[in-house]
Amino acid sequence: MKGVKATLFFFFLMGIGHALMMVINQVDERYGFEKSFMFWSALVLTLCGVILIYITRFNKTDTWQSMNGALGGILFWTGGVEYGLIFCSGKLGITTLHGTAPEYRLMESTWPFILAIFLYLLFHEDVRCNFIVFLRRKLPLMKGPTSEGRIRNYGPRTAFEMILVLWTFYVLLLLAYDESIFGAHHPITYLIFILSLGCGIYLLYNLIKIKEMGKAIRYAIPTAIIFWNGVEILAKWKVFKEPWITLNFPIMTSIIAAFLITFYLIYKERKTSKLNK
Question: What does the pLDDT look like over 115-125, one tens digit per residue?
Fold first, then answer.
């Protein structure tokens, strides 16, 4: 159940993150702060993310290293990257096109950077990502085996994992939605939807077998985000209205309550495991 709890935690966190951005944007717009409230909010989120990642050097267990690293990564992504793109797209004069916001049009063009990072990770002996290791087994890429030395702090790695996985799937969906490439109702978009659900279920099946909470947290990040692709695509197809965008109070309250309960269960299980050692 550790893996299920961790997946639910990050799945709910995705919705809360979207809602937080909408609240910040609406406050800025409603009270005429002319993006100053947005700027300072983005700065605070970014700094909180950096602080959480820094704190991981003092965490003694890989569970809290992974948890703080993941939370730090998503805060840095929201404040530094997403809001950074909003400010940059405004400065460059990029406009909305076919319903795609300026910041997402700018993000869509970052795919070469993702490819460059992926190539680096693919040939780096110290990277132990399951997907990367799988590719190494299938392709003759490495001069030797993957490094198996002790990792003293999982925090920065988990933060990097959170940022890179979010970034990769954001860009994938944006490329799929782009009418000049595929489009929201193109067969490729339907294929991404099918693969997201199928791969998400497979990853969740593997998660059930993981007994260490730290490892479950790290494995749950791509699992939750891949599942989230399906949610995003369904919303794009207008199957439902996103409550984190419309700020539906009863639904968002329920999501936040579920998030807090899941966090408590993770904390309680970690505390129980520590006492039993």
Answer: 999 999 988 87
